Amino acid sequence: MSGPTQKVLKPGDTIGILGGGQLGRMLALAAARLGLRCHVFSPDPDSPAFDVVQNATCAEYADVEALEMFAADVDVITYEFENVPASAALVLAARKPVLPDYKILETTQDRLGEKDFVTKLGIGTAGYADVTSAQTLNAAIAKLGLPAVLKTRRFGYDGKGQAMLREGDDVEAAWQRLETRAAILEAFVPFEREVSVITARGADGQVVCYDVTDNEHRDHILKVSRAPAAVSEAIAEEARRIATRIADALGYVGVLGVEMFVVPDGNGARVLVNEIAPRVHNSGHWTLDGASVSQFEQHIRAIAGWPLAQPLRHGTVTMTNLIGHDVDDYAQWLTVPGATVHLYGKRTALPGRKMGHVTVVEPAAKP
Amino acid sequence: MSGPTQKVLKPGDTIGILGGGQLGRMLALAAARLGLRCHVFSPDPDSPAFDVVQNATCAEYADVEALEMFAADVDVITYEFENVPASAALVLAARKPVLPDYKILETTQDRLGEKDFVTKLGIGTAGYADVTSAQTLNAAIAKLGLPAVLKTRRFGYDGKGQAMLREGDDVEAAWQRLETRAAILEAFVPFEREVSVITARGADGQVVCYDVTDNEHRDHILKVSRAPAAVSEAIAEEARRIATRIADALGYVGVLGVEMFVVPDGNGARVLVNEIAPRVHNSGHWTLDGASVSQFEQHIRAIAGWPLAQPLRHGTVTMTNLIGHDVDDYAQWLTVPGATVHLYGKRTALPGRKMGHVTVVEPAAKP
């Protein structure tokens, strides 16, 4: 089925955003800077993105009437999260351009489909195998060895829906706990670092990559990103090449984040793709203060049919997530020289909840 | 009369903004970044600031009920323009803290009172005289000479409510055209440049000045600002000293802009104050992209009772206003390397209307 095709927005036009979290909020703020309005659709009445737009719809993604009214009010639709229900995307795409193309979600919502897609492009991933039962799980373990990570194929994020399997673990019990029949086993990757590349692709096919970013996770949640990553220029080039290849192959319009592992390989290293996030990405938040154009503005430019900008980095940039009660330290962060504090307006600091982030830019050292 | 005193805001608290233009809009965007909500009050249904907040009141400043409901919904109140009616300020200040203190407006809304205030601080201004009739106008001309500028004492901006008087002009006719009995005659100042200093003063009395900015006007409207200004360090220091003195003397909390003339004086130059703007100021828009903290965030920090930040400038910064149909060039500006485009979301590009601005940052030259 083919819906409306992309148009070039004018200032004053309205972007519809599915999802009302901090990513939707920062997209809306970037759009406002460019004279574009936003209408946020989210089922959560406490959505942080509602605070920064005049037009908001609080409804379930299954509410077809609400989706239709939303589509009627906007000129183009985008999303802040990859788990947009296919049924909602279908309703919307029949009425207004949805960018990035929602069919891309079919690939990226499914860990198996995503890995197959990447592999077919000739890009490396961790070894993986389809798992549909305790029996196929045992076969996968026989093939990939242990330790390995068992993950649901769909709807996992920040470490949810996954289990590490080690020698001697009760495989049958782990399988039962996952409560699914669609899973994937991924070989353990002895990586030396986790990096990501934030990539924007315009409606005209132009691709702009940000500097490769070093990422540190804590409890499966991103804690710190640093740009540029401490990798060789060869590795950085390879990482950008991979991200560009993926964006091109998807015919992508907007910003996507590609998470990668850098794995020791003899005297050198190689780059494996871990995950594709078809959206603005936490590891790109440093671009708000550390670059002349942010990932959020690039995404808006792309879906508006406007030209992408060439980002200039302001120095060495460190982004720290404020997770849960980390946010209680905001007043101290306000006093740190060169620090920019971003708070998302969430009411309750639950454990593991991303409440804000802080960017610190150190001017580039003299050559 | 004494109203509620300042409190320290928490993330999630609400700032009330009087006025819904681009300054209110950019204040609201800065507040959002810090996790604060905004409620905008403006009589204009097409207010650009309405687009970026969830809570908006469209009502006249004389609508006491609307003002009371607005005050009840917010934790602190600020304003984006200096012509807030005293009656509205009184209603609000009895209910919630209004910052900067609205009593400051009594000084800055009146060109004569402002010049008297500055003069009493020992700071130079253009020569001036009170004018209340054609007779006192003639006496003022005899004292100050011609050319000189006749201005209404109140409610003038962007060259409105003023007339240049030259030798041979019909003084009586000029007086009639001004349609007021409260005016001021200002001696013509043979300035070599117009500069401004954007100054933030915190609730604790801390003062932070941005770099002195060079300003170019066209048809009495600011067209281009450049930071840092091409003045000697002595002149820059004098300009910052003057702005600091004014902020301290006013017991100011928030951001104010002080417009100044640099006037040749023998082998050197001296600095005269032209005007005080008790608000964020167009000549400080470069700080959004050219500094580590913007004038808008500083204002929000000050009125929130939070610490001010020390701004670091990213390089040499040029800000160009998009006035009237200048805004039609936005698509070209989007392609200029290093340019950041700000559009205010105004529907109609009337002549003289500020529709947006563009900042270009050139990285600092190596020493």
Give your account of this protein's structure.
Chains A, B: Keywords: ATP-binding, Ligase, Nucleotide-binding, Purine biosynthesis. Chains A, B: Its EC number is 6.3.4.18. Chains A, B: Belongs to the PurK/PurT family. Chains A, B: Homodimer. Chains A, B: One of its GO terms (molecular function) is 5-(carboxyamino)imidazole ribonucleotide synthase activity. The structure is a homodimer of 367-residue chains. The model of chain A has no long low-confidence stretch (mean pLDDT 94). In chain A, strands 9, 10, 11, 12, 13, 14, 15, 16 and 17 form a nine-stranded antiparallel beta sheet that branches. In chain A, strand 9 (193-201) and strand 10 form a beta hairpin. Chain A has helices spanning 22-33, 64-73, 86-93, 103-108, 111-120, 134-144, 171-178, 233-250, 287-290, 295-303, 330-333; strands spanning 14-18, 37-42, 55-58, 76-79, 128-131, 148-152, 162-165, 183-187, 193-201, 207-209, 213-218, 221-227, 254-265, 268-277, 315-323, 339-343, 354-363. The first copy, chain A, is 27% helix and 29% strand. Chain A is built from eleven helices and 17 strands. Chain A is an alpha+beta fold and 367 residues long. In chain A, helix 1 (22-33) crosses helix 10 (295-303). Chain A is globular and about 60 Å long. The longest helix of chain A has 18 residues, at 233-250. Chain A has three domains: 14-98, Rossmann fold (3-Layer(aba) Sandwich); 127-187, 2-Layer Sandwich (Dna Ligase, domain 1), CATH 3.30.1490.20; 193-363, D-amino Acid Aminotransferase, Chain A, domain 1 (2-Layer Sandwich), CATH 3.30.470.20.
